[in-house]
Amino acid sequence: MSRTTFRLNDGRSIPAVGLGTWQSKPNEVRDAVEFALQHGYRHIDTALNYGNEREVGEGIRASGVPRDDIWVTTKLDNPWHHRVVEGFARSLSDLDIGYIDLYLMHFPCSTDPEDSTKHLPDWDYVKTWQEMQKLLDAGKVGSIGVSNFQIRHLEKLLADPSCKVVPAVNQIELHPSNPSPKLLDFCKSKGIHCTAYSCLGGTIGSPINNSGPLLRDPAILEVATAKGRTPQQVVLMWGVQRGTSIIPKSISPSRIAQNFELDGWTLTPEEMKKISGVQTRFKVVGDGWMPIKVFFDDDE
Ligand SMILES: NC(=O)c1ccc[n+]([C@@H]2O[C@H](COP(=O)([O-])OP(=O)(O)OC[C@H]3O[C@@H](n4cnc5c(N)ncnc54)[C@H](OP(=O)(O)O)[C@@H]3O)[C@@H](O)[C@H]2O)c1
């Protein structure tokens, strides 16, 4: 499983397991990225918004793994929607890795850079996508996609005559307490691969962390015990077996290694069903900090 890749609608292949880096501090993330790559990871997820692209790039270069063997995803931040070329150039320059494999629109929300409480007037994500499509011609990005898009966002985007490129990926929150089957099915029907973020249920110790209850859920503990695996490993395996790529975040070498131990075992259909049957519901990422509503609770 750690070597599994998923084929995207543009013919490129994304590694199933990557390292997340949100809330990994610059002084921690360099070592985490270097360690992960030296221990087999070939996929790193970052974003301009995380403020750590420079150190992520340092970790990539320090790893000694050839650049062409690594998949790097980064994202356009909300205040940069009307400045796609500049936002992309900044990420590319900070990462300093020659090119970006996957560039995502972080949220379907263009924020006024002068006032984060305001939506940018006369600029929505359809316009942003028009600009992102142009990036493909410049040859510094392999694939383009979106993140945090709900069904209604995708329907509007795909129906617009300016949409010539179907997003290769929609990176969304997915874990057993936010399984989003309707959104997942919709993406599949349009040929859009989904990457699962907060795939362990979010960051421990963060005010918005909720992973404790998920990873203590009796169904998950039961499957973990039966498999002789950790609750985290069975939740990650559930994500890959659903056909989503996963990007668990860690800065701890032992946990980075453990999250990659997904070879030589699988979950049975009954075990998959048991995990899918988890009843608790929560989301790690909300939209209260953005000037417009993005999540509509309509993806179940
Ligand atoms: N597109 C978006 O809007 C968006 C939003 C959220 C996240 N993301 C991406 O998705 C990535 C993952 O999501 P996330 O960071 O929200 O959370 P996550 O990966 O679900 O969980 C991370 C938390 O789990 C801990 N952890 C990791 N492996 C563990 C293990 N084996 N045992 C016990 N604890 C473990 C980490 O702590 P330690 O670091 O101390 O190990 C951290 O506190 C992000 O880093 C980011 O790259 C994208």
From TrEMBL:
Keyword Oxidoreductase recorded: yes
Domain NADP-dependent oxidoreductase: 17-277
Catalytic residue positions: 50
MF annotations from Gene Ontology: oxidoreductase activity, acting on the CH-OH group of donors, NAD or NADP as acceptor
Site (Lowers pKa of active site Tyr): 75
SUPFAM superfamilies, per database record: NAD(P)-linked oxidoreductase
InterPro entries: AKR (IPR020471), Aldo/ket_reductase_CS (IPR018170), NAD(P)_OxRdtase_dom_sf (IPR036812), NADP_OxRdtase_dom (IPR023210)
Binding-site residues for substrate, renumbered to this chain: 106
Superkingdom classification of source: Eukaryota
Keyword Transmembrane: no
Keyword line: Oxidoreductase
Entries under PANTHER family matching the protein: ALDO/KETO REDUCTASE
Listed name of the protein: NADP-dependent oxidoreductase domain-containing protein
Species annotation: Coniochaeta pulveracea
